[in-house]
Amino acid sequence: MNSLAEKDRPIVQLLLSTGTCPRCILRFCCVGSQMLYRHPHKDLMKDLQEFLKSSQEKEDTVCLDVADPPCKRIRLEHGEEGADDLNHNGAIPSADNGNSATESSAVKVCNVCLGILQEFCEADFVKKVCQKVNSADYQFTSFVFSVSLPPQLSVRERAAWLGVKQQMRNLGLPLAKDDIVQLKEAYKWIIHPQLSEELGVPADGKSLFEVSVVFAHPETEEECHFLATACPDCFKPAKNKQSVFTRMAVIKALEKIKEEDFLKHFPCPPSSPKNLCDALEIQCNNGAVFVAGRYNKYSRNLPQTPWIIDGERKLESSVEELISEHLMAEFKADSFNFSSSGREDVDVRTLGNGRPFAIELVNPRRIRFTAEEMRRLQQAINDSSDKIQVRDLQLVTRSAIGRMKEGEEEKTKTYSALIWTDKAIQREDIEFLNDIKELKLEQKTPLRVLHRRPLAVRRRLIHTMRCEYIDQHHFRLRLKTQAGTYIKEFVHGDFGRTKPNIGSLLNRTADILELDVESVDVDWPPTLAD
């Protein structure tokens, strides 16, 4: 085995004798050849046996020529008197020779990886993973593979590594590195080519389609619990975690605990378990897809989002639901998140070019749509209800959605309001409003939204106003305003919380009967040809 050197011989012999699998031995010897890890388990075991045999023959020859002093390594192998006995309290057992070590570990579950680099690298498991992927019916052109490992693996790795360090120290040999090839990395080296061949697409670290496997090993799950006593600061309860013994918490504790304290609580080398790991879950997840467009709302009895108070639904539908139900069905997504450039009240229509919106579709099975398919989807939404219409429906990127929100308060919006006054008005009574430009308002949070918005004073601008006289008690007011202006409150004053207001400007009581949004001046998403 060309990747191993003579300095690795005591490591190989020790780990084989204590029940470590060939691939984990390669990891502990810092072998970086990906191809070597992909060799069959039996072949690797045979290669390690040959490596030990050839190394032993060379050493026997050297020892015959040099009688004094005797080889320290040989003395250790034959049970040197006074050698550190770490067994059970961190002891390193002696190994008779490479053959017995190989034979004894051939059928065992690895005492370090708990079988992950044994059974779970075989073709049968790869096929099981691919069957799960194919049955889920996802569209994807590449994949990224992730694996979740039991936290106690880090404890076992530490115990095995301390055994290696002690062995090398006893032999008076230097240890080049204080690290090993990570188990996850080695596992991916082995599994990636097999998954890629079976799925027919390449592995790509930047892919949005993730295949993940979650491993667990109930037999040894309590092995890291002693760390909570030794390093209590590392284990803090978290809302979204079922156990405090997360992999990161265990690693943090292992970095803090002293070597001698570790050896008091955990056997070195670790014992071989009876059972393999369990592959608890094989999951697939596609990265979110984002759809954007503009909507018109023609109903005065339709909220933008579901209107639910104290668990009771007030109205049967919403803009969000009328659009998303079609997208969810076509993209076969698990869930969605709706966002828009502002929002209108339930009794306010949105006319003109409509209001920009975006929907994030979470874990979609289908991700590829042609422009024609998107047009048909838009038409299906429009045909399903006379309360809304959608235009410019298109796929966008996550980063593009930021354009809808950026500078939102600097954007302008145009409204049309039907206003009533208690005192009779003549045409000339309202004409002065046409001449007012850049009117500065101070608006306290309206009473009607105070339950969900913090109390604050917002400064807003009315850029322009234009009046249309209707009769002695009614006129229509068209306004261009800074985004975020509360129009209803600007008309009636909200008990003096908005100053100035139409009532104070006209010196009479005014109220709003109807309000329409006529334009939302956000140049996004791009306009599409019909």
UniProtKB/TrEMBL annotation:
Residues covered by the Pus10 N-terminal eukaryotes domain: 110-284
Molecular-function annotations in GO: metal ion binding; RNA binding; tRNA pseudouridine(55) synthase activity
Reaction it catalyzes: uridine(55) in tRNA = pseudouridine(55) in tRNA; uridine(54) in tRNA = pseudouridine(54) in tRNA
Pus10-like C-terminal domain segment(s): 290-521
Keyword terms: Coiled coil, Cytoplasm, Isomerase, Metal-binding, Mitochondrion, Nucleus, tRNA processing, Zinc
Broad EC category: isomerase
Gene Ontology terms describing biological process: tRNA pseudouridine synthesis
This protein's GO CC annotations: mitochondrion; nucleus
Major location (coarse): cytoplasm
InterPro entries: PsdUridine_synth_cat_dom_sf (IPR020103), Pus10-like (IPR039894), Pus10-like_C (IPR048741), Pus10_N_euk (IPR048742)
SUPFAM superfamilies reported in the protein's UniProt record: Pseudouridine synthase
Cell compartment(s), UniProt: Cytoplasm; Mitochondrion; Nucleus
EC nos: 5.4.99.25
Record has Coiled coil as a keyword: yes
Pfam families, alphabetized: Pus10_C, Pus10_N_euk
Record-linked PANTHER family: TRNA PSEUDOURIDINE SYNTHASE PUS10
Assigned protein family: Belongs to the pseudouridine synthase Pus10 family.
Protein name: tRNA pseudouridine synthase Pus10
Protein's organism: Tychaedon coryphoeus
